[in-house]
Amino acid sequence: STQAEPMVLTSRSESGKVAILTLNRPKALNALSTPLFDQLNAELEKADADESVRAIVLTGGEKVFAAGADIKEMKDKQFAEAYKNNFLGTWAKLADIRKPIIGAVAGYALGGGCELAMMTDFIVCTPKAVFAQPEITLGIIPGGGGSQRLVTLIGKGRAMDMVLTNRKVSGVEAGQWGLASRVTEDGQSVVEEAVKVADGIAKFGVVAAQAGKEAVNAALELPLAQGLRLERRLFQALFATADQKEGMAAFAEKRKPTWTDN
Ligand code: CO8
């Protein structure tokens, strides 16, 4: 058969608890196209709904995470078509996924690739990874949240520097700036490291993990007083869970907790 190779490959960690989604358009350096995002969104929704999945790792290749939105797809686009079909509108689905997602970045994360990485909950990268927003070189600006998320992660000045000068930021710098949370040792597999971190999350209760993600994300959207209220309400709500009773009983009894996700 001549069935097309999927543009997003899926696998599981050895523990079976972490879904690994791998961007797979190597000939186009994982350029992000509408069909690729349709597949990515479908796989993300599947993983989010699957109770055996407790965390997700999103990665690309060893040389390229993703070289940005597909320039060939965008080249001849017109406003009316882009507007009517809400171009890029569905590309931010990842940000709605409730399970923890770790971005594992090796090589180029350019334009939409950098933006996609920033949609994950946090990034693990190699020291030689390259993050940049080259949109200005194409006569456009970031369209996948880059101008907003960069400011939160690295501050206004560095965000401006990247967006206005196409500055290339190495993995090492990304770690220093807070764009990446963890930087691997040279030669270490970024996917293995991200999976190890994700497996660590997978060992905790799902309710606490999802609530923690919800609370941190609220900080990006809410004024402080509302964010603090939401955090406190979530905190109080967790006293209705079996996992809170188990976690604190286990501490008091000096044993390991057994989470039931209830
Ligand atoms: N789109 C389409 N095709 C691409 C892209 C891309 N972004 N990047 C690379 N390719 C293709 C090349 O055209 C080439 O195809 P072919 O073999 O048919 O000629 C193939 O991939 C290999 O690329 P190169 O020969 O250029 O490989 P090099 O190793 O010489 O260079 C680079 C690698 C430096 C990564 C180079 O390919 C490059 O600069 N790519 C473009 C990077 C860029 O400008 N990205 C920003 C795009 S704009 C954008 O992302 C807007 C964001 C929109 C929001 C997204 C929401 C998530």
From TrEMBL:
What broad class of enzyme is this?
lyase
**Cross-referenced CDD domains:** crotonase-like (cd06558)
Is Lyase found in the keyword set? Answer: yes
This protein's UniProt keywords? Fatty acid metabolism, Lipid metabolism, Lyase
Gene Ontology molecular function: enoyl-CoA hydratase activity
- What EC number(s) has UniProt assigned to this enzyme? 4.2.1.17
**InterPro entries per the UniProt record, alphabetical:** ClpP/crotonase-like_dom_sf, Enoyl-CoA_hyd/isom_CS, Enoyl-CoA_hydra/iso, Enoyl-CoA_hydra_C
Pfam families, A to Z: ECH_1 (PF00378)
Entry keyword annotation includes Lyase = yes
GO biological process assignments: fatty acid beta-oxidation
What do the Gene Ontology cellular component annotations say? mitochondrion
Task: Report the family membership.
Answer: Belongs to the enoyl-CoA hydratase/isomerase family.
Q: What is this protein called?
A: Probable enoyl-CoA hydratase, mitochondrial
Q: Which organism is it from?
A: Apiotrichum porosum
